[in-house]
Amino acid sequence: MSEFTKTEEIQIGNLQDCWSIIYECMAKAVVEMTGVEGECALRQGIRNYGIERGIKMQERHRKLGIKLNLENLFTYFDLPGDPRFKREKLSLTPQERLSYTLVCPIAHKWIEDGNKTLGRIYCEEFHHACFGAYAPHTQTNLAKTLTEDGDNYCCFSVYLRPGNMTAKERRAAFEEFDPDYCPPKDFCYDLGTHKAGFNRLSILIIYFIADAVTGELGERGEKAVIEGMKNIRKELAAFMAKRAGAVGTVCSEDFLEKNRTLHTRFSNDSLWNEYPNEKVKALAKKYIYEE
Questions:
Q1: DSSP strands (E only) in the chain
Q2: Nearest residue to 195 (alpha-carbon basis) of 5, 44, 2, 18
Q3: What is the per-residue pLDDT across 136-180, written as a single tens digit (0 to 9) for each?
Q4: Per the confidence metrics, is the pTM higher than 0.85?
Q5: Predicted confidence (pLDDT) per residue in 46-61, tens digit
Q6: CA distances (Å), 52 to each of 63, 126, 281, in order?
Q7: Distance in angstroms (rounded) separating the CA atoms of residues 51 and 29
Q8: How far apart are alpha carbons 275 and 208 in whole angstroms?
């Protein structure tokens, strides 16, 4: 039985799909308008996005006093799960995570929209960057992905071996190499809400793609970023109207608050203030929120 009500499951799915649409809009504009150079910048932006998430999880886990290993990474992630995911978990230990993803709503959305190739780019870059930023000696093998032609599941084999680490790194990662370690008492890990999580990830994917593309391609990159941002506004509006209609309601402020990742006002998305690229923030404010 699902831990969520049917209404909550719909809202979670809408939030996840909003993030998927946001990535599609940015990636498609960049690749179509700037070619292979744009793809290079897009890949760097995705890696930077993954690194940011991995570092933030690492920092949080350090503060909580838990070991920086694969069991903790995948147990205490940075986002509540989407119940539409279907996985077969083969093994999860401090040193390894072996699993199959049988159903991925992100890949499904990209394939449905005709953007499988853009999805493949994301899958090739994000996981290695995120897991490697959290634990630098992580070996990530993604042998199959649902965004690859001919594959009907994702195959994850992720390893973190003590033999690749210094004595200090082993102590930080594994209890058996730290005889003085005392696990935190009354440990509680709050994953937060789906709304807050997908809001954060939506801002981050826009920011890091736009930052990399404008930084590497200058004016050409800026034009592509603007086009991507305009499409985000248009596509999210159409998607929200469609989803509201599907549940027999109007696309009100209340509906948007529960089902759309980005707030309707730039000032309400305070996470933008944490990042330094003023050009990117100004473009987002103008073309996503205000125009």
A1: 86-92, 96-103, 139-144, 154-159
A2: 18
A3: 999 999 999 999 999 999 999 999 999 999 999 999 999 999 999
A4: yes
A5: 999 999 999 999 999 9
A6: 17, 11, 17
A7: 23
A8: 10
